[in-house]
TrEMBL record:
Principal location: membrane
Keywords assigned by UniProt, alphabetized: Cell membrane, Membrane, Transmembrane, Transmembrane helix, Transport
Name of the protein in question: NCS2 family permease
Topology with respect to the bilayer: Multi-pass membrane protein
Naturally occurring in which organism (per UniProt): Salarchaeum japonicum
Gene Ontology cellular component terms for the protein in this record: plasma membrane
Length: 478
């Protein structure tokens, strides 16, 4: 029996109607879509200047700290994804979560003044709690408490969220002081023009049913950007964007920093002189956001891949949840913020990824990128994020599963969909739907259809929002 046959038997290709080529293409697609985290996570966590908080490692420069964090990001991601591949047999990618890393650096370490070692200790505690709760089935039980309209709305909300992230990276959507977001100056931005051309090229390939269309679009756009830069077009903007969004710096390669000993194990020091209440609140915040970010991603991507059962639940959800729990624990021990499932996994699922083989390919590519730490995300964001817009458009189709004629479904579902992109958080969108569901059901006299667990879940979200937005964290630490 050859390697291909062994992999087919282990991951159950026939059972999931897939093959090695499809799984490999799906894994490459997801990796390309999420590889930006190898650069973005270190850039977010490392402190630069006096304005924001983050890691300051004594005796090491900012550049060295960034490269150490890149190595840790890769290792933590690979550890979680390997568990996803061999234990859960699901095609999901995991890595340190966006938003959670910003909360770690800017709020906990920066605004609250908590040492980064103590913040890592909070991440490790959160991860251990996740492992215990997952092992006893508590996390899967809570996910099953999600109201049906919220489950069916998560995929569409994530689709809008993905599209927003993609359009921002492409320069199509920009911030605006008057309207929050606005259309970028496309005609003046060579990067945006190239990204738009690449997007339509990718959409055309996808519409024609070309296998690997998303990968072809991403790589084609990247090659076009390099070619135009070498030809002298774009006034240097394409080259500058290629550098700043990908971390592509030839000059840094010989000086790559692979020694992570200053970060690994630093969480142990973080347990010293811990103030119990403030530490508990920090753990609570990490726990809550990560719990529902991962839950939302698994349900949303699971819906896109047809993994959900007739009740809208992901079968054996405890297994992919364990991958998230182990990844968070390992990540905190190595020196990075909370690891979570990535919505970019939808890119690989749409390419046909159905088993842990897809995850295995993602993990291998993360580990291979260790060889090229400064080049790890050489695919520029304006190219890689084309995938997010394409998948965002596709995932909008999930909205048809919602009964819009029933307001007790339409209101929670609508809030879930709208709040996700507007607050830049999967967890907040889920919270809006969960809190509104029992209220609306009770208002129309259908309170008997709301379980005690759903009321408790809604109440827990209210408490979370109070802790997160009332300033209690700042006052407690102060």
């Amino acid at each position: 029996m050859g390697l291909a046959d062994t992999l087919a038997d282990y991951f159950g290709f026939d059972e999931h109607d897939t093959d090695l080529r499809t799984e490999t293409v799906a894994g490459i697609t997801t990796f390309l879509a999420m590889s930006y985290i190898i650069v973005v996570n270190p850039a977010t966590l490392a402190k630069q200047g006096d304005e924001f908080g983050g890691f300051v490692v004594e005796g090491y420069t900012y550049a060295e700290t960034v490269q150490m964090l890149a190595v840790v990001t890769i290792l933590a991601s690979a550890a979680a994804i390997l568990v996803m591949a061999f234990y859960a047999n699901r095609p999901f990618g995991l890595a340190p979560g966006l938003g959670l890393n910003a909360f770690f650096a800017f709020t906990v370490v920066g605004a609250l003044g908590v040492p980064w070692q103590t913040a890592l200790a909070a991440v490790v505690v959160e991860g251990v709690l996740f492992i215990v709760l997952t092992a006893i089935g508590a996390r899967e039980y809570v996910i099953k408490l999600f109201p049906e309209p919220v489950k069916f709305a998560v995929g569409t909300g994530i689709g809008l969220f993905l599209a927003l992230i993609g359009f921002q990276a492409m320069g199509v959507v920009v911030t605006d002081t008057a309207t929050a977001v606005s259309l970028g100056n496309l005609a003046q931005n060579p990067v945006a023009i190239l990204a738009i051309v690449g997007l339509f090229f990718t959409l055309a390939l996808y519409a024609r049913g070309v296998t690997g269309s998303i990968i072809i679009g991403i790589l084609g756009t990247t090659v076009a950007g390099v070619a135009l830069t070498l030809a002298g077009y774009g006034g240097g903007n394409l080259a500058a964007d290629f550098v700043t969004t990908s971390g592509f710096q030839w000059s840094e390669l010989p000086d790559a920093q692979y020694d992570i000993t200053p970060l690994a194990g630093a969480f142990i020091e973080g347990f010293q002189n811990v103030e119990a209440l403030s530490f508990a609140l920090i753990v609570f915040t990490f726990f809550f956001v990560d719990f529902f970010d991962t839950a939302g991603t698994l349900v949303g991507v699971g819906q896109a891949g047809g993994f959900l059962d007739e009740d809208g639940d992901l079968p054996d959800a405890d297994k992919p949840l364990m991958a998230d729990a182990i990844g968070t624990t390992v990540g905190g021990m190595l020196g990075t913020s909370t690891v979570t499932a990535y919505i970019e996994s939808a890119a690989g699922v749409e390419e046909g990824g159905r088993t842990g083989m897809t995850a295995l390919v993602i993990a291998i590519l993360f580990l291979v990128s260790l060889v090229f730490v400064p080049l790890a995300a050489a695919i520029p964001q304006y190219a890689s994020h084309i995938a997010l817009v394409v998948i965002g458009v596709i995932m909008l189709g999930n909205v048809t599963g919602i009964d819009w004629n029933d307001l007790t479904y339409a209101i929670p579902a609508g809030l879930t969909i709208l709040v996700m992109p507007f607050t830049y958080s999967i967890a907040y969108g889920i919270a809006a739907g969960i809190v509104s569901y029992p209220i609306v059901k009770t208002a129309v006299g259908e309170y008997d259809e709301v379980s005690v667990g759903q009321w408790l879940l809604a109440a827990a979200f209210v408490v979370y929002f109070f802790v997160r937005t009332s300033g209690i964290l700042q006052s407690t630490v102060a």
